[in-house]
Amino acid sequence: MRLGLLVIAGTQDVGTFVPLEEHRSIRLGRGQLEQGIDLYLHCSAISRYHCEIWRDETGIWLRDLWSRNGTYVNGSQVPRNEPIQLQPCDQLRIGSVHLRLCWYGPPEPHWLTWNGQTLLALARDIHEQTRELLYELHYSQKVVYETRVAQRRRLFGILHDALQDAGCDDAELLHHLQTGCSFRGECSFVERLLDQDDLADLLARIGSRRTVSRVPGGLITSADRPR
Ligand SMILES: [Zn+2]
User: Fold this and answer.
1) pTM for this structure?
2) How many A from CA of 202 to the centre of ligand 1?
């Protein structure tokens, strides 16, 4: 699976997706494409050159380009003009625009059917755990919350092992699951698995791997569909 930047809220550009490729930086801002902007965003609170995101062999990085109103990662403002390392699933905000560093594309079909749909069952458990977690973040005691966090992390460990056994060799994805996806909301990889939920049920019913033409989350181009 691949990682990229998805516009999720706060602008008419919602749904725009830019894949993150090695050694190519993505510049976000209100400038024009010919001025070196890769992701143009409609919002008056965004600077002409607001921030840039790139990846290299050490990870994924973001730098605020001395923007007027700042750049926020998971709710906290980052220092200006200083590279900040990002993790998959992190959420960014610039002006009123919310973006997310997401896994995208459908999972491999054989991951979904592997070992009686084990991965789907785990994804549902993590989804449930995440909902409980968010509830307890607001209404419960710290110790209960931390127990939930530990449980969720354990489930990610199991998902990591299962995915590896199912034949996944994507080091970046496996590492993300092993570290337990530090994002407080839903993990975007878990979302991708759950997007496929009814597809997997359908496959199980008809007992075939025939391609079902469905575009999960409206994000996937035909080139991303399993071959
Ligand atoms: Zn995640």
Assistant:
1) 0.82
2) 26
